[in-house]
Amino acid sequence: MATPIVEFKNVNKFFGDFQALKNINFALDQGKFYSLLGPSGSGKTTILRTIAGFTSPTSGTVLFQGQPQNNIPANKRKVNTIFQNYALFPHLNVFDNVAFGLSIRHVPKDEIETRVMDNLKLVHLQDLANREINELSGGQQQRVAIARAIINEPVLLLLDEPLSALDKKLRQDMQYELRELQQRLGITFVFVTHDQEEALALSDEIFVMDAGEILQNGTPVDIYDEPINHFVADFIGESNIVKGTMIKDYEVEFVGKRFECADAGMKPNEPVEVVLRPEDLDVTTPEKGKLVVQVDSQLFRGDHFEVVAYDADHNEWLIHSTNPVEEDKDIGLFFEPEDIHVMRFNEKEADFDARLETYEGE
Ligand SMILES: Nc1ncnc2c1ncn2[C@@H]1O[C@H](COP(=O)(O)OP(=O)(O)OP(=O)(O)O)[C@@H](O)[C@H]1O
Ligand SMILES: [Mg+2]
Prior knowledge:
CATH class of the largest domain: Alpha Beta
Strand order of the largest sheet: 6-7-8-3-9-10
Number of helices: 9
Number of domains: 2
Order of helices and strands: EEEHEEEHHHEHEHEEHHEEEEEEEEEEH
Largest sheet: 6 strands, mixed
CATH architecture of the largest domain: 3-Layer(aba) Sandwich
CATH topology of the largest domain: Rossmann fold
Bound molecules: adenosine-5'-triphosphate, magnesium ion
Helix content: 25-40%
C-alpha cells in the first residue's frame, strides 16, 4: 500500500473546555476526492485547518506523506487552501492574483508568464487575464481562486465550502468542473460542504460528521444505501425512518407486520430502526401493497409527485410517485426486501463494518 497523503491518528482538539474534534482517525490516498459533510459546527473547518497547519491538535498525530507534522508550520506544508470567500487580492488583476505566489518566490518572469497562462487555460480564464477582480462574476472569481491554488502544484488541495456563494445553476457547472479538474490533475481534494447532494455527486469517499465526530465514512453509494444510524440516514437524502423489531436474521417487523429483509447479524427480537427511501416505494392498490397508508398531501416536483401519507401507527411516509394520487384515499406501498435497510441503535462504524462482513461474505 502506498503511503497516505494525510493521516490523522487519535486527533483531539479542545478550545478551552469545548471539544471540537473527538478522536479523529483517517488516512487519505493520493489522487482521490474526499468530502467532509456535516451540519454547522460539526468540526469540518477545524479538520481542514489542522491539515493545513493553521491550528494544531490538542492530542494525537497528524502525518503528511508518512511524516509527523505537529511542529511543521503551515507555509512549509505542500498544501493549498481555498476558502469560502476566496480571499483574492482586490487591487490586483486576474493574472497578478494567480502569479502572486510565484512572484514572491522570485520565479523568473518568463516562467511566471507561461505557468500563469497555462493555469488560466485549465480553468477557462485565459481571455480574462487582464480583468480586475471586481469585474468578475462569482463563478469567475471562484476559478481565479482555483488557478491561484493549483499553480503552486500542491499534492493536496483543501476547499472550504467553495461553491456556497454561487447560485444553483452555476454551482452545478462548477461541480462538474471541479471534479474534472481533480481527475485531470490527480491531486487529492478535501472538500468541505454541508450540502449532501454535492458530496454525493463529487466524492470518491465521504466523511459524515456530527458534533466533532466522524460518524461514518465510505463511498457515496455505501453511505446512501447503508447509513449507519438515524443521523446519517436523515442527513444523506430523504428517508422514512420507523421503529421496528428484528425478529431473526432476514426478518423484521414494523407497523405491526413482518417483512423479509436483507439484513442480519442482530440479536433475536432486538429493537431497531428501519429506513426506506422515498424513491424505493412504489404506489399500488391497497390490496397489492405490503403496507397501506392514507394520503395526506402531494406536491408536483417536475419529475415526480412527492406524496406525504400516514400509516395505521401514525408514522409519516414520504413517497416519490410517478403518477398523481388522490388525497385522503388509502394507497398500497410496494417495496423489495433489499429496499428495507435495518439499523441498530448506537452502532459504531467498526461494529457495523464487522457485522456486514459476516453476512455479506456468505
Ligand atoms: N478558535 C476557536 N475558538 C473557540 N471555538 C472554536 C474556534 N474555532 C472553532 N470553534 C468551535 O468549534 C466547533 C467546530 O467549528 P468548525 O468551524 O470546525 O465547524 P464547521 O463544521 O466548519 O461549521 P460551518 O459549517 O458552520 O462552517 C464550533 O462549535 C465552533 O464554534
Ligand atoms: Mg466551516
